[in-house]
Specification:
InterPro entries: EpsI_type_B_pred (IPR054653), Methanolan_biosynth_EpsI (IPR014263), TAT_signal (IPR006311). The chain is about 35% helix and about 30% strand. With about 240 residues, it is an alpha+beta fold.
């Protein structure tokens, strides 16, 4: 007699089957809908250097450090498929540092960006991945679905938190991202979007996540609602993150 599937596996399979059914039914019902309208063309261009302040709350950019957030090979690959990228290191009054990396693309309607998920980039640089899980980042402006993991390379322990956006929808790579892409595609729209990642080098994993949460909170406090939507989409409740 076959062993019963774990609840999470069963839910994932059912979600996948539902997504497949939606895609098949919509393909037959509206065969002439091909996304052609770029969402990015309908709103102001994204300038990450201008959008993200170099100083806010207790944080300011640490320009003294020469180390990059990503290595040159990865950064070059990102720039081939993203319209603009930003990599900075911030420090607070306690000497704690956060590495921020954002990559924005005007075309997030396909699968070309999947190869540049943080899990894949870090593994390609020789890191082993641990504590990989989905979480909800609670900010004073709303809740953001995030993925957290710890990248380890020798003595370097780097807990990190990231999310992606598809248009004005905050989501994560995988089936839910595909649904967000499909929703835009059915309206003939090619969505834009970004990957937002924060990380810190420390062995205290939970302390790192708290530090990253506080960093995001301070950043969002310094932004307008429209700017927050650019970086984190809209919350599931309909508010702005």
């Amino acid at each position: 007699m076959p062993m019963p599937l774990p609840d999470q596996t069963r839910r994932t399979m059912l979600f996948g089957l539902a997504l497949g059914a939606i895609m098949v039914s919509t393909a037959g019902a509206i065969p002439f809908v091909t996304p052609t309208d770029m969402l990015a063309a309908q709103r102001p261009a994204v300038d990450l250097d201008a959008l993200v302040p170099t100083s806010f709350g207790d944080w300011h950019e640490d320009r003294a450090l020469a180390s990059a957030v990503v290595n040159p090979q990865t950064e070059a690959a990102l720039r081939r498929i993203y319209a603009t990228t930003l990599s900075r290191i911030y420090v607070n009054r306690n000497g704690e540092r956060i590495m921020l990396s954002i990559a924005y693309g005007s075309d997030q309607g396909g699968e070309s960006t999947q190869a540049h998920r943080p899990e894949i980039c870090y593994a390609a640089q020789g890191f082993s991945l641990h504590d990989n899980h989905v979480d909800a980042l609670q900010t004073v402006h709303g809740v953001i679905p995030v993925r957290r993991l710890v990248a380890i390379n020798g003595m370097r322990h780097e807990p990190l938190t990231y999310w992606v956006t598809v248009g004005d929808k905050a989501t994560l790579p995988g089936l839910r991202r595909k649904l967000a892409q499909l929703a835009y595609g059915l309206n003939g729209t090619i969505p834009d979007g970004l990957i937002f990642r924060v990380s810190s080098i420390q062995n205290d994993v939970q302390g790192a996540y708290r530090l990253q949460n506080g960093f995001v909170d301070a950043l969002f406090d310094a932004l307008t609602p429209e700017q927050r939507v650019r970086l984190a989409g809209r919350t599931e409740a309909g508010g702005q993150a």
